[in-house]
């Protein structure tokens, strides 16, 4: 099958390997991915961005969904780029896709070359006439070797490029390709590893394939955690029980690297001719389409409605069969079911084996698999060649309470009546359950529908979408009725009051996580039916579902692919015909961006007053509004205890004021927003520095640097010297940098123009000229002298890489450092941040110099320092004075830290106002 090997292998690079199973895990089951060391990530971590950062990348108006563990945009979508003729002409589409890939290669595939990408798909999907989406997929290679899962895909609609997705792996490098090891040695290593873990296996008739295997782990304090190994891939299959694996072995030593189960377990119910849904439900005769029967000893193929013909008008003796060109049943519990019935000319006969579990399972699975195949062909994709192949269906296998798909054929287990199933539960023969057969067929449909280079196979996504495939047929959100020998559902896609959300309800178990997307698609179907009526709404839901099935790479990316399928003009910024219903369904499950839905701009502070405004995009103007249910401000004096208050709604704006503080106070605060659809936003969004700062009091400038006319006396360097990348100029939005200066047009920063990130294994610094501070202390004055500046800093957790500030050689600030490498607190600013440091002690020497340092290890790198509006200021009023009768406040340090002094002073002068920023600093700009 053309896509299956690629689709399943792609999941390894996605790092999405959860333990699979049915309602209970299979007996003796292992996780679908096994590695000798640390396991890969369980799901892709997503971050959203839009606006200035993407505008700086040449994509104004676009939105990005970033893979935080690879730093590539897993989806980009927006207003579209004109590509006349692209939908109808594959060559035009490929040329437009290549042009975009060339222009944005550094973003889509950091460290790759353009010739690393090879076209593997260029086809029109099955959205329907007038609504076609052409997809162009490129597979990633490095050094001529395929990078598993690495791909960049492009979607064209209405002759516009409207969506791009990348699962490309960054900075892939391998040693020279060694000579291939002997096949026998590789086979022994693969089967021996599984045998050590108790599996009896044999090598399948598949030659080893040379690949680059990326194993992605969650981004931690060391930044990206991706291991690249040159590997030989083999396929092995269990000789007893159910099991099939792809095994990757080191290409030089044959040492095991990873193995991945390629069967997909599930649980559910099946209805037959049998049961309508399960043996515990009603039964009714159903056709056995295109089954091979013996009619008067002549092999005869039945029509789609079960009709057979023979040469006379006399009654015929029919030996019914459960095999045909489209579905072929095998009985692992014995011989195939046989029997004879008499069929009169023009008559009808019902063949029933309702009283025999193993025989009924054969009839039932044949009918249900035939229904599923016909449904897929007529309702989703009549041109999918796989649907014309013979589907192998195996029933009565020697295990209980489960079923599975290999990505092609489907398998079902015998019944358990307590005492011999997992955890001693009772469960039905899964070949007699329609929902289970539909579900397992859904896995195979998914694997065979993926557009290579655009979509990927993901376990959790496939579980939820397979549940939904069954629900499309049964029209019932309760999936798997009859599994437990009663009418209760195995999984419910619409559980009242228990809707699952991404990512807070993820567990790493594919069926659990799949309920998130299954519930989302059911809710979307219901909303579309309510809007368009039963028939039209269901048809539209199927179209959007299948578009996602073909092009999504995991659960979060289904949102974008559903929008692409729904779009009607090649521009996703003006909404889609059913944008309201899509946003509501996905938002309720945590799969859309709440800031976009609300039209929420970052909060603004003017003096003590804080406001945040909602302005939903015009495309959502007619939608049921998502509202802010809570907007809470947490604040404290620096070093003090936290207090909170709520912002109050005033129309579409939420307002509140920080408590007034005495001069000399550094006030810190953050804002947490919760929405009516269950989402949460936090400002600032920086795990290592969780509060904004503002300084209270009037100050005078000693010296400022705005870098508008160059370095202004600053110097810079690095060790080794080749890694000095400090620059003055306009920031370009690269590597997490800002796309515009805080003020004016220029900044001082590390690598503004190449890739935006600092170099590894280096110590680099920028140092100010000597600044005279003696005048601040003239005539015996005792002011405070403060460093106040704006930064946009990206640096790994200080356990690995450290950013620091020195004044006269004294380190006065350092980025947060975890105590262990598992901390995960990288300092990543996502906006210009104001920062205040008291440097009075150093300034009293009469002069100071400032130095901004960054030390990096051999691992991951981020954007580093970007600096603007660096000022030395002195206070006009002294620090707050502690009441003499308050024993808790006996010195200045205690006064500033515990907040015990009286309040009431107002911010003064230039420092009091900052209408468009969240920090607060005196700024003197030359204009």
Structural topology:
Layout: H1 4-14, E1 33-34, E2 46-50, H2 52-56, E3 63-67, E4 72-82, H3 90-103, H4 105-108, E5 117-124, E6 133-142, E7 145-157, E8 160-166, H5 183-196, E9 201-203, E10 209-220, E11 223-238, E12 244-250, E13 256-261, E14 264-266, E15 292-295, E16 298-301, E17 316-319, E18 327-331, E19 341-343, H6 357-379, E20 391-400, E21 403-405, E22 410-414, E23 416-417, E24 426-427, H7 434-449, H8 459-474, E25 478-479, E26 491-492, H9 510-532, H10 534-551, H11 558-566, H12 579-587, H13 594-598, E27 604-606, E28 609-613, E29 628-637, E30 643-646, E31 648-650, E32 653-657, E33 666-675, E34 680-683, E35 692-695, E36 699-705, E37 715-719, E38 726-729, E39 747-750, E40 763-767, E41 771-772, E42 785-791, E43 794-795, E44 802-807, E45 810-814, E46 827-828, E47 833-838, H14 840-843, E48 847-848, E49 850-855, E50 866-875, H15 892-898
Helix pairs in contact: 6-7, 7-8, 8-9, 9-10, 9-12, 10-11, 11-12
Number of helices: 15
Q: Helicity range of the residues?
A: 10-25%
Task: Quote the average pLDDT.
Answer: 84
The oligomeric state is single chain
Structural class, by secondary structure, is alpha+beta
């Amino acid at each position: 099958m053309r896509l299956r090997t690629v689709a399943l292998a792609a999941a390894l690079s996605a790092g999405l390997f959860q333990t699979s199973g049915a309602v209970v895990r299979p007996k003796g089951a292992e996780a679908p991915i096994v590695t000798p060391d640390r396991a890969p990530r369980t799901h892709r971590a997503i971050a959203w961005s839009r606006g200035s950062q993407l505008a700086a990348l040449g994509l104004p108006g676009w939105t990005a969904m970033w893979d935080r563990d690879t730093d590539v945009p897993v989806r980009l979508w927006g207003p579209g780029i004109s590509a006349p003729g692209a939908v109808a002409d594959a060559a035009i589409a490929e040329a437009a896709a290549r042009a975009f890939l060339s222009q944005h290669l550094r973003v889509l595939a950091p460290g790759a070359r353009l010739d690393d990408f090879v076209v593997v798909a260029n086809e029109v999907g099955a959205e329907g006439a007038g609504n076609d989406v052409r997809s162009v997929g490129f597979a990633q290679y490095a050094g001529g070797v395929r990078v598993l899962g690495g791909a960049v895909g492009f979607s064209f609609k209405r002759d516009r490029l409207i969506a791009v997705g990348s699962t490309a792996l960054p900075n892939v490098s391998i040693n020279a390709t060694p000579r291939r090891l002997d096949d026998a040695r590789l086979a022994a290593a693969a089967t021996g590893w599984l045998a050590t873990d108790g599996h009896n296996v044999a090598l399948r008739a598949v030659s080893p394939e040379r690949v680059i295997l990326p194993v992605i782990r969650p981004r931690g304090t060391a930044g990206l955690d991706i291991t690249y190994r040159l590997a030989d891939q083999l396929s092995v299959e269990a000789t007893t029980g159910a099991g099939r694996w792809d095994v990757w072995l080191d290409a030089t030593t044959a040492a095991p690297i990873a193995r991945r189960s390629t069967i997909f377990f599930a649980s559910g119910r099946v209805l037959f001719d049998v049961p309508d849904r399960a043996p515990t439900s009603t039964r009714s005769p159903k056709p056995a389409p295109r089954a091979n029967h013996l009619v008067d000893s002549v092999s005869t193929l039945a029509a789609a409605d079960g009709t057979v013909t023979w040469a006379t008008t006399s009654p015929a003796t029919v030996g019914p069969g459960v095999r045909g060109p489209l579905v072929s049943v095998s009985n692992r519990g014995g011989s195939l079911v046989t029997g004879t019935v008499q069929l009169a000319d023009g008559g009808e006969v019902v063949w029933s084996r309702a009283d025999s579990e193993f025989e009924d399972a054969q009839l039932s699975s044949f009918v249900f698999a035939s229904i599923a195949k016909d449904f897929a062909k007529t309702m989703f994709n009549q041109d999918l060649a796989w649907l014309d192949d013979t589907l192998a269906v195996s029933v009565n296998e020697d295990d209980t309470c489960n079923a599975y798909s290999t990505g092609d054929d489907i398998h079902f287990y015998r019944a358990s009546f307590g005492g011999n199933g997992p955890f001693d539960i009772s469960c039905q023969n899964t070949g007699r359950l329609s929902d289970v057969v539909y579900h397992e067929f859904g896995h195979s449909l998914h694997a065979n529908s993926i557009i290579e280079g655009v979509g990927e196979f993901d376990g959790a996504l496939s579980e939820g979408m397979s549940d939904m495939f069954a629900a499309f047929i049964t029209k019932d959100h309760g999936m798997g009725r009859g599994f437990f020998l009663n009418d209760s559902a195995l999984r419910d896609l619409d559980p009242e009051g228990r809707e699952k959300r991404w990512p807070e309800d993820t567990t790493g178990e594919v069926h659990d996580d799949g309920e998130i997307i299954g519930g989302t698609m059911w809710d979307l179907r219901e909303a579309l039916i309510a809007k368009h009526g039963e028939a039209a709404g269901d048809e539209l839901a199927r179209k959007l579902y299948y578009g996602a099935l073909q092009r999504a790479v995991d659960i979060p990316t289904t949102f974008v692919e559903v929008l692409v399928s729904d779009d009607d003009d090649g521009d996703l910024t003006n909404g889609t015909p059913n944008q309201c219903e899509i946003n509501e369904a996905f938002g309720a499950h945590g799969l859309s961006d709440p800031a976009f839905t609300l039209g929420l701009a970052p909060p603004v502070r003017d003096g003590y007053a804080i406001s945040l405004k909602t302005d939903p995009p015009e495309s959502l103007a007619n939608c049921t509004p998502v509202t802010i249910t809570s907007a809470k401000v947490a604040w404290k004096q620096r070093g003090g205890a936290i207090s909170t208050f709520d912002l109050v709604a005033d129309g579409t704006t939420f307002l509140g004021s920080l408590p007034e503080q005495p001069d000399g106070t550094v006030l810190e605060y953050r804002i947490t927003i919760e929405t009516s659809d269950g989402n949460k936003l936090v400002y600032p969004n920086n795990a290592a520095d969780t509060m904004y700062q503002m300084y209270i009091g009037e100050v005078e400038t000693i010296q400022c640097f705005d870098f508008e006319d160059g370095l202004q006396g600053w110097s810079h360097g690095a060790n080794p010297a080749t890694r000095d990348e400090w620059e003055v100029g306009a920031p370009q939005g690269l590597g997490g940098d800002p796309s515009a200066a805080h003020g004016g047009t220029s900044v001082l920063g590390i690598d503004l123009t190449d890739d935006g990130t600092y170099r590894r294994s280096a110590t680099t610094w920028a140092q100010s000229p000597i600044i005279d501070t003696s005048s601040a202390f003239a005539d015996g004055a005792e002011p405070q002298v403060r460093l106040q500046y704006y930064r946009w800093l990206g640096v790994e957790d200080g356990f690995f890489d450290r950013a620091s500030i020195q004044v006269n050689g004294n380190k006065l600030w350092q980025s947060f450092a975890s105590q262990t490498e598992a901390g995960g607190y990288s300092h990543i600013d996502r906006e210009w941040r104001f920062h205040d440091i008291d440097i009075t002690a150093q300034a009293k020497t009469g002069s100071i110099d400032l130095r901004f340092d960054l030390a990096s290890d051999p691992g991951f790198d981020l954007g580093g320092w970007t600096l603007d509006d660096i000022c030395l200021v002195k206070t006009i009023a002294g620090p707050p004075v502690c009441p003499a009768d308050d024993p808790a406040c006996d010195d200045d340090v205690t006064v500033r830290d515990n907040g015990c002094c009286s309040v009431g002073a107002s911010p003064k002068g230039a420092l009091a106002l900052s209408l468009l920023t969240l920090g607060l600093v005196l700024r003197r700009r030359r204009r």
